[in-house]
Amino acid sequence: MTITSSTDDLFLRSVSASVAGLDDAKLDQMKERLVEWKMTTAIILRDDEIAWEWYSEGKDTVGPLLSCTKSLLSALVGIAIAEGHIQSVEQPIADYFEGLPDDAIRIKHLLTMTSGWDWPDFDKPYKAMKKSADPIRFVLDRPLISEPGTAYLYNSGGSHLLSVILSKAIGQSALDYATSRLFKPMGFHQAKWTSHKGINEGGTGLQLYGRDLAKLGLLYLREGDWFGKQLISAEWIQESTRKHHRGLLHYEPPIYGAYGYHWWQSPVEHNGAFDCYFAFGHGGQYLLIAPEERLVVVLRKALAGRNEAVQSRNIIFEHIAGARKK
Known about the structure:
Layout: E1 13-14, H1 24-36, E2 39-46, E3 49-55, E4 62-64, H2 69-82, H3 107-111, H4 120-123, H5 126-131, H6 135-140, H7 156-170, H8 174-183, E5 191-193, E6 195-196, E7 199-200, E8 206-209, H9 210-221, E9 225-226, E10 229-230, H10 234-241, E11 258-259, E12 264-266, H11 268-271, E13 276-281, E14 285-290, E15 295-301, H12 309-322
Parallel strand pairs: 1-3
Antiparallel strand pairs: 2-3, 2-15, 4-8, 5-8, 6-7, 9-10, 11-12, 12-13, 13-14, 14-15
């Protein structure tokens, strides 16, 4: 999907950081860290307005969301349920795939990454799934090692199954559905999403401008209302972003959190700053929403090791949080 190459925007207004209740001087001092830690994008929204933004190339660019893609997929599942295409999160995935021994695995288990399939070492089977002749069957044939709904295992294979279920339910690709239900109404400028045999990759593969990713955060901050049009139900946003499993709340360094429906959730006790939930991509790509602070943060950085995400975390919970005026 290409709507326009322009980054002008009818929906996002800009105000000064000070008007938004942020300390300009502290945010300017943060630029040194952004460069040092190889960030490419930093956008801060307060309420409905951009309060501060920075780009390593001097302008916004299209970039990969990596696993932040999963949170957009969660939104699409919620919309499909509201429109009656999918029964509910309790629907067995066996309704969409032949050859499953029973209906124990539900859509909610894929959303919360508690399917029970063997999927070790933080998504280690993902590369093998990508290389397999039949990625769908690769996931479905994994042995069950725990009762669905009990144990958390980060599993991009389950995310891909969600994209398959969505496409079967709505009769079109996830990208086409996202374009009609979200991207066009919200004035997105460009979207690319990798696909295989007409199915968009569920766990990753989406590319957006930084500002368009920020709009998704703003939509969630506004509980699904896009300036008078309800694009996602407030109930789905509340349910999908709350804690459903402790997830990786005790992972060190503390770059993750508890887990909802393909959204991470972090309480103030975990991060030391504020209650929030966020989409997370490998190495430190963040779309974070802190409702009580009326705050949305987008951070993108050059690809690096998984634990390099602690640098993005420090930007958010130390520098940005520290720039709030008392």
